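User: Fold this; tokens only.

Assistant: Input:
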Amino acid sequence: MSAVSQDALIARVEAHWPLLDRPRWWLWQRRHRANGKLGKVPVSVGRGGMLIPHAATDSRAWRSWAEVRSDFLAGMGDGVGFALGDGVACLDLDDCLDLDGVPDALAAGLLAELPGYAEKSPSGRGLHLLAWAGPTLNAGNQRAGRLELLRTGLVTVTGDTWPGHARELSSSATLTRVWAQPGPPRRTLPVPARTSRSPPEIADLLQVAARFRNAERFFALWTGDLSRHRSASESDFALCRHLYFLIGPDVDAIDAAFRASALYQRRPENWHRLARTGPLALTYGQLTVRRAVACGGPTLPPPTL
């Protein structure tokens, strides 16, 4: 991103974003996916300026706008993002604007019904509409056809507002009414279970992983890149082997760490599908972790973490 576009983004965000003073900011970095699409991975700045991927729900790594602004202007990351939650929700609609920026019918209807803040996504083809989320809405992220209701996670921020929508968030009552309208079936998106490793420990794990010669391979897998392996299952196994080295033969801790990765987020339902039945029934994830541990090999001593 050029210095001009960096300055322009900062200026737009500071002129329009309604929640600038909330310390829930992230840098994000583009990562290529095996399907050809670009992922947007939340990162923090580690030692020596290394960008370290994090789970967007890692509240210990949320920062103030001033801190993220400074790092972004210094050339860190590819964009800025905001951690949803604490009553803030986002309706995310991809590929709803044509090449001339004209919204399709669904996007036009949402813009008409939700008068609050709305901006274009980084691609310029999607829309993010912000609203307060009341207690009547389910807490998890949900999907209805092309539309996602996001209650948690990272929303990328551009400040490229839709005309007439650079204002306060839409009300919770309006969002509840819009989401309750007839349409495609609502589907709750999988949410990672609470892990046995707390977010700060995951951050420490990533810091340690960055020290080793195979850090590039580890972080490619951690951020969901499948391009180095022939299949998704081989990628899952490879990441579990990396985690075995970092953590040791602790199947619960390896499983918990894997669930903090973008590789898990690509298809979380598959991690929990039953892969072995009978008295020793195991999910695909449990089986993958146990196979990684059964291979043995060197591990780091516990004090390193």
